[in-house]
Amino acid sequence: MVRPVGVGAVRVSAVVLTWNSARSVGQALAALRRQDGLLPLELVVVDNGSVDDSPDIARQYAPALVIENPRNLGVARARNQGLRAAHGDYVLLLDSDAVMAPGSLQALVEFLDLHPRAGVVGPMLVAPDGTLQYSCRRFPTLAGKLLRQLPASWPARAKLVVDEEMRGLDRSRPQAVDYVIGACQLIRRSTLDAVGLLDERMFYGPEDVDFCLRAWQAGWEVWYVPAAVVVHDEQRVTRRRPGMLTVRHGLALAYYFWKHRYLWRRPAVGVRAVTATPGEEGTA
User: Rg of the chain's alpha carbons, rounded to an integer?
Assistant: First the structure.
């Protein structure tokens, strides 16, 4: 059941961001509607200046709040509009090209229910062909970003990718990770209250990394939960990303490193701060 905004007790709010997403948003919203066991689910769609039919498609999934921006305000600013409008105990941030498998939202919610120190959780992400996407990662470093510019065949680059993307991680069970990418994150309301909203000075990434780092610094944990599976057609966005967005992403990354005052050595939080099993007692 999808409840109108502001009606009754809201367990989960889903904030879906669209930007010229007419080809994909219907599938994402239909999959949300099919999620079982969560009553009620509040739906908020924020459209970032689309020139296609994205807002009209979103309205077909009423009752839903559809916020329309006259232009692209950036990921963080638009998602913050949805976060401010959301009333749920948990808030789901979902890309318009991310389709949740049945029961996945329930799995994420149950993990947060059982593990009170977990503030942010993310699912297993797979491509439409079933290929695993490395969606849980270590915090980036400037050295890593520079090494990624080298040819893929270089051993130093290959070693870096394995490390940053945590490719040696056992992805069959829940794991504490530095961050989960923003294509799909479920965030505890009390974590949002403690950490604050997304940093709007980051137009296009890495606002998801920044939020998870701030969550760790505030005493919360970030977890990968493979019982939840989401099909993520990330190439659909990558193919249409204009050059200006690439520039803005680079500027946002430079700001991220400046903000957190590190370049080469990762912050002393994240997976190093927890044991092998999630905390089940106490609160953050």
Answer: 18
Q: How far apart are CA 5 and CA 269, in angstroms?
A: 36
Residue 253 in tokens: 């990354």
DSSP classification of residue 162:
H
Say what the pLDDT of residue 231 is: 98
Helices (H) and strands (E) in the chain, counts: 10, 13
Evaluate whether residue 35 is within a structural domain: yes
Summary mean pLDDT of the chain: 87
Q: At 136, is the secondary structure helix, strand, or coil?
A: strand
User: What is the domain range of residue 167?
Assistant: 2-273
- Global pTM reads 0.88
Residue with tokens 């970032």: 48
Per the structure, the count of domains in the chain is: 1
Residue 212 falls inside a structural domain: yes
Which one, of 51, 48, 200, 178, lies nearest residue 122 by Cα? 178
Sign of the CA dihedral running 196, 199, 200, 205: negative
What's the DSSP call for residue 139? Answer: P
pLDDT tens digits along 149-174: 767 677 777 676 667 777 888 899 99
